[in-house]
């Protein structure tokens, strides 16, 4: 797996159970996956020689992020490496303009968009859509970095001018009026098998995913089925191998639009580690190894995942002690820590709260609210060493 982040770390965890060893290409020995894999190649994902060293003798080469240049991957394919997903699929997770154009050609529902050659394109596009504009870097963005929700036309022009002056390519999108964001997570194997997990709701703060509710509460059955079918169709049309996350907008008029694609395990699938029969990490490996795919059924009526994001001020209390207290107070909370240093806003772990009992339902707003409160409380405790409900352990 190229990349030594938390996704590779958790994929390694799944590889162990399958009797596999995950070699990782990491930039440094202290990266989350490099800490746990016995087979680490140190190097840059932009260095063809390092990629060759990582691929040598491996059954397949896959990714924890989408930033490997496709020209390198094409070379590796020509040299006989099994690259999964293949570069002609991965490009749609790398380049938002290529993705938008392909989805348009496939007739998938997407926001109106435009390529940008000069600042004046902003005025033309804004006049065409008659509403607020979003500016996005075409490549390299993540966690909302590279996305500007412009306040007005002047702000949009200023943002585009700044990017263009730095030689950064951008595109424009209409700002979608939405109720919430959803994610359709699927997997596809080279054999052509596909599997979809229940569609989830994702909650973003400052462009970063902070919470996932599985399944998406109150989502009409036909919309959920449409989103799952869309995910499976896109995986097939694009020739994806492995997990595909289709980030979606649930618009105020009840439609769904595709935001972007990721071809790897995704934050919106972390709930599957404890809340589904097959986790996204195991499924990614099954798909990449062309094994039959696993059952994607949920194990509980609702599972909520809370991301642990580094606090503005790292607490005095050690993480070890925070974990100890959390376990004492919330024995059902499932903790996943990534072995990363704490920095403000950085994803350092997540907590899953799996709803108990057969009586709960994702349509029961009190049941969902109680699980969300507990996931939030646990995640906030781990990052801040503060109980959101004012509880005093003493
Ligand atoms: N066209 C849009 N309209 C409204 N909000 C948007 C739009 N595009 C992106 N966003 C918001 O910005 C977030 C990050 O955008 P995204 O394209 O997913 O970038 P990233 O690669 O950083 O995840 C989205 O999850 C959403 O909250
Ligand atoms: Mg995104």
Q: What report would you give on this structure?
A:
- By secondary structure, the protein is an alpha+beta fold.
- It folds into 3 domains: 6-83, Rossmann fold (3-Layer(aba) Sandwich); 112-174, Dna Ligase, domain 1 (2-Layer Sandwich), CATH 3.30.1490; 178-384, ATP-grasp fold, B domain (D-amino Acid Aminotransferase, Chain A, domain 1).
- It contains 12 helices and 15 strands.
- It has helices at 6-17, 48-55, 70-78, 87-94, 96-105, 120-129, 153-165, 221-238, 272-275, 280-288, 319-329, 365-384, and strands at 24-26, 40-42, 113-115, 133-137, 147-149, 170-174, 178-188, 194-196, 200-205, 208-214, 242-251, 256-262, 303-309, 334-337, 347-354.
- Strands 7, 8, 9, 10, 11, 12, 13, 14 and 15 form a 9-stranded antiparallel beta sheet that branches. It has a 4-stranded antiparallel beta sheet with strand order 3-6-4-5, sandwiched between helices. A two-stranded parallel ribbon has the order 1-2.
- Helix 1 packs across helix 10 and helix 6 (120-129) runs antiparallel to helix 7 (153-165).
- The mean pLDDT is 97.
- The structure holds adenosine-5'-diphosphate (ADP) and magnesium ion.
- Bulk shape: globular
| Total of helices | 12
Bound molecules: adenosine-5'-diphosphate, magnesium ion
Backbone structural class: alpha+beta
Question: Which range does the strand content fall in?
Answer: 15-25%
Fill in the CATH topology of the largest domain.
Answer: D-amino Acid Aminotransferase, Chain A, domain 1
Q: Write out the CATH superfamily name of the largest domain.
A: ATP-grasp fold, B domain
Binding site for ATP: 96, 136, 173-176, 181, 259-260
Subunit structure: Homodimer.
Pfam families: ATP-grasp, PurK_C, RS_preATP-grasp-like
Domain ATP-grasp: 100-289
